[in-house]
Amino acid sequence: MLVTMKEILKIAEEKKIAVGAFNAPNLESLQAVIAAAEELKLPVIIQFAQCHEVYNPLAVIGPLMVDFAKKAEVPVCVHLDHGETLEYLEEALKMGFTSVMYDGSVLPYEKNVENTKKTVQMADRTGASVEAELGSMGKRESGAGTVEEDDSKIYTDPVQAKAFVEETGIDALACSFGTTHGIYLTKPRLDFTVVENVRKETGGIPVVMHGGSGVSKEGFHEAIRAGVRKINYFTYMDKAAGTAVAEWAASFPEGSPAFYIDAVIVATRAMKENVKEAMKMFAFMD
Predict the structure, then answer these.
(1) Residue 119 in 3-state DSSP?
(2) With a threshold of 0.90, does the pTM exceed it?
(3) Looking at residue 253, what is its pLDDT?
(4) Would 206 disulfide with which of 37, 41, 146, 229, CB 3.0-4.6 Å?
(5) Residues ≥6 apart with Cβ < 8 Å to 199
(6) Which residues, including other chains, have CB under 8 Å from residue 155's CB and lie 6 or more apart?
(7) Exposed, middle or buried by CB within 10 Å (0-12, 13-18, 19+), for 203?
(8) Which residues face 133 on adjacent strands?
(9) Which residues are catalytic?
């Protein structure tokens, strides 16, 4: 069932949980996420980040995402994550994405507001939802690599967030409160009062958590209690697939053939199980 992000976040707010938003840059990750959501009977957000264009063009994977969402047994939002240009966002909206994120977090505040407002106007024409980002998590969105604690992070100012939300009319706000994209080498230092105060100042806008890899179960639960309603998740899901394939390949006797199609099955199964664990954690089912 294809729905908007706003509809899914309403469910999350009513249940006081967070909905997982999982990147699906290829067919196998898309299959894994939808299968996990249907098995657990939970709503889900499938998303494609602009930086994943190198793995599969949006023009190829985007229509598949929309088709999978329409046929799913649970509510599914198809979301463009970290859209960096208005032209790219327009492309996603034209192919049926029900939500887009304009990422102007590295721009001056005024330019971020200007482009986010334009994004909201574009999305309104198709009824899609809009997420935007205020503050900076230091590292840009990626699906691999490790990160040190990043001093370039700029935590979201709750008072500025109020003005930003009022000026732009967005449906969800990605906040910087101590997370960073990638796998942490040190324990992240999270400030949940940022989330609480953003919610208070904005009248309860759903807060989005990016860069959750390395956050403990208790950390996720505390973030959700503070007001996080959407959690982006990809790095550990991707890592689970890589680890499973590596272990599978290592189990072969020397000289035995290994076939790609079998590796794909192993990877998809590992991603599905990893996604299920994340979904259960975000919904307080574990």
Answers:
(1) helix
(2) yes
(3) 85
(4) 229
(5) 205, 207, 226, 227
(6) 135, 176, 177, 178, 191, 194
(7) exposed
(8) 174
(9) 81
